Amino acid sequence: MELEKITIFGQADEKRRYDDACAAAHGMDLIGERWSMPLIRELLLGPRRFGDLKTSLNGISANVLSQRLEGLEMAGVLIRRKLPPPASVQVYELTPWGYEAAPIFQALGRWAVRSPRHDPMRPFSPVSLMLSLRTMLYAEAAGDLAARIQLDMAGEHYFWIREKGDVRIGRGEVDEPDLILRGSPSDIAGFVYAGMPISAFEVEGDAKLAARLPSLFPMPPKAASAGS
């Protein structure tokens, strides 16, 4: 009976795949399951523990998270490993090939932000906000801006650095930051993208740079909706 169950499961799994040689369709076979792309997004800034991933992915169950991690591991997108002492905890990390998905998220974000139904006031995870601040920077508005910004969110430190026109983001503290923002990612995103007051979070350092942030990340015009 167990062999029969395995065979049936395999057939059902095969039916969910696209019968299409297009590489983009194959890509959707690999990461098209619900929660797979947000899970990859959360790993783009480095390895995470199971509990960290569950906390960052608002609404996912432990069971579904386990399934998606297993599926992405089988697909070669991520691996699991144990950190050395004193941490000695299991983490999940993208493979080198998995990290190559980063431009997909940037392109998809630039496209989807123009959706009439996109709402920047919905929950943001810290990693999601950091990736957004790299993707949505308007280079013409930034000009020759050079800045080192630290963002303290959800008990972790993140950095956004622009030097010589290039933007770097990641986890960790930055030396001699020009600006430090402390608060929830949703409050910071609300200020940057949706005109919410800056008083919703703490600001330390260059007040002029802080006030300038919304102009550096303008929201593009929405696409025309059907019938308009």
Task: Please name the defining characteristics of this protein.
228 residues; alpha+beta; Nonspecific Lipid-transfer Protein, Chain A; 2 domains; 5-stranded mixed beta sheet; disordered N terminus
Secondary structure: elements and pairs:
Layout: H1 2-15, H2 23-31, H3 36-43, H4 50-56, H5 62-74, E1 78-82, E2 90-94, H6 96-99, H7 102-112, H8 126-135, H9 139-142, E3 147-153, E4 156-163, E5 166-171, E6 179-182, H10 185-194, E7 202-205, H11 207-216
Parallel strand pairs: 3-6
Antiparallel strand pairs: 1-2, 3-4, 4-5, 6-7
Helix pairs in contact: 7-8
Structure description:
With 228 residues, the protein is α+β, with helices and mostly antiparallel strands. The chain folds into 2 domains: 2-101, Arc Repressor Mutant, subunit A (Orthogonal Bundle); 105-216, SCP2 sterol-binding domain (Nonspecific Lipid-transfer Protein, Chain A, 2-Layer Sandwich), CATH 3.30.1050.10. Helices cover 44% and strands 17% of the residues. The protein has 11 helices and 7 strands. The protein has helices at 2-15, 23-31, 36-43, 50-56, 62-74, 96-99, 102-112, 126-135, 139-142, 185-194, 207-216, and strands at residues 78-82, 90-94, 147-153, 156-163, 166-171, 179-182, 202-205. The strands form 2 sheets. A 5-stranded mixed beta sheet has the order 5-4-3-6-7, covered by helices on one side. A two-stranded antiparallel sheet has the order 1-2. Strand 4 and strand 5 (166-171) form a beta hairpin. Helix 7 crosses helix 8 (126-135). The longest helix is centred in the N-terminal third of the chain and has 14 residues, at 2-15.
